[in-house]
Amino acid sequence: MKILCCADIHMGRIPSVSHEEGLSSHASWDAIVGKALELSVDVLLMAGDVVEQDEHWFEAYGPLLSGLEKLGKAGIQAIAVGGNHDYSVFPQLAKDSPYIKILGLGGTWEHVDYKGVRFVGWSFVQRYMKENPLASLNKDLVDTDLPLLGLLHCEVGSGSGTNYAPVPLSSFSRTSVPWWVLGHIHKGGIQKEGNAFYCGSPFALDSNEEGSHGLWLLENQENSSNVWKDPLFLQLCPYQFETCTVNLDGVATDEEVRQRLAQTLREFAALKQCEGNLLCKLVLEGSIARTLDISRILTREHLESLWIAVGACTVRTLPTCVDHTVLDIDLEKLSEGKDAIALLANKLLDEHAIQLMALHYRRLDEESFNARPYQSLDQTSMSEDEYIHLARQAAKRLLFSMVNSEQGGRA
């Protein structure tokens, strides 16, 4: 049996991608249907968040029904579970389309046997589900001689504080299900030490979703219907977001900056071996001449217009970059004296002073996240080294600004 697996399509949401023509809110769904027909699979599994949310129902529902009909008439059975975005849409979909089977609509585990394979699944019944759904899995559902596959939308490895069906990774291996097909996390991949994999979003929805995106293929081992081959990833997305670090150490002119950038992008594209558009967020590093102004050399307009062809890949840069470059100045020399520049240069040379500044940054972060307006945001904790880097960069930028200004006292 050939089974195609996907999740987190988010139909109704148009991916935030420049330089991609014809992207609609159902472009990835159309591509999924096309790939399923091309491969002549038996089943299409969808692990939740097929539709973005209720307000996108009108623009997503027609293409969704049409695609399911194409699959059904080709003999491809669609089997799905509801996620935190489409829990309220799926009950109606189950009534409107005879070509899809949605498991666990009432928040209880269900199964369907199709062509000699048992599929078990559970669906969200509301936007937030704080309990581990595997804790309520009826063992009778998986007590069978049939080949098994599980389907679930959840957050793996999270504690009880999450709102999205937290499941410890070890819970999967304690079941008799050989493979669990998961949705919710947009970065696909097989979970470590587990018999589960996230499908990831089939198309990257924005620049934060880096890496390859697509579908997963499951097949029986030859001469053994009860044993599954390892899941096989299939690239589907026609573009790929990546972060490219450009070392500008030692450059002294505008032309040298452009040459180093072009060379790095070519090497990066060759390493990635990507087809289609490779969309790069630039991170600039290195010590550069004091006369250079990166913000003038690499304006938003320049970055938006830059592209380089490397084989079957077109490399493009995102319109903003992260500038971690430092100006080539002598801190020891600047630290001599008693003016503001000397005082700041001395702080940069003092590791203890930098650590105190980093501690101040950490406290500001914590105070911000504890403030009521920001409590609903996801908190991304940084390491001590990251706070130290942030403090050092902020101090250097202030120093460089002072040195290069007429009021700084030194030119």
Task: Give me some keywords for this one.
about 400 residues; alpha/beta; Purple Acid Phosphatase, chain A, domain 2; seven-stranded mixed beta sheet; 21 strands; disordered C terminus
Computed structural class: alpha/beta
Question: How many strand segments?
Answer: 21
- Low-confidence parts: 374-379, 406-411
- The CATH topology of the largest domain comes to Purple Acid Phosphatase, chain A, domain 2
Mean pLDDT: 89
Question: What report would you give on this structure?
Answer:
This protein has 411 residues and is an alpha/beta fold. The chain has three domains: 234 residues, Metallo-dependent phosphatases (Purple Acid Phosphatase, chain A, domain 2); 91 residues, no CATH class; 80 residues, no CATH class. It has twelve helices and 21 strands. Strands 1, 2, 3, 4, 13, 14 and 15 form a seven-stranded mixed sheet that branches. Strands 5-6-7-10-12-11 form a six-stranded mixed sheet. Strands 16-17-20-19 form a four-stranded mixed sheet. Strand 3, helix 3 and strand 4 form a beta-alpha-beta unit. Helix 10 runs antiparallel to helix 12. It is elongated, with a radius of gyration of 26 Å. The protein starts with a strand and ends in a 7-residue tail after the last helix.
Summarize the structure in short.
The protein has 411 residues and is an alpha/beta fold. The protein contains 12 helices and 21 strands.
How are the elements arranged and paired?
Blueprint: E1 2-6, H1 27-39, E2 43-47, H2 57-73, E3 77-81, H3 90-96, E4 100-102, E5 110-114, E6 117-121, H4 139-142, E7 148-153, E8 155-156, E9 166-167, H5 169-173, E10 180-183, E11 189-190, E12 196-198, E13 214-221, E14 224-228, E15 232-235, E16 239-247, H6 254-272, E17 276-285, E18 287-288, H7 294-297, H8 300-305, E19 307-310, E20 313-323, E21 326-327, H9 331-334, H10 340-349, H11 351-370, H12 384-404
Parallel strand pairs: 1-2, 2-3, 3-4, 6-7, 7-10, 8-9, 10-12, 16-17, 17-20, 18-21
Antiparallel strand pairs: 1-13, 5-6, 11-12, 13-14, 13-15, 19-20
Helix pairs in contact: 1-2, 10-12, 11-12
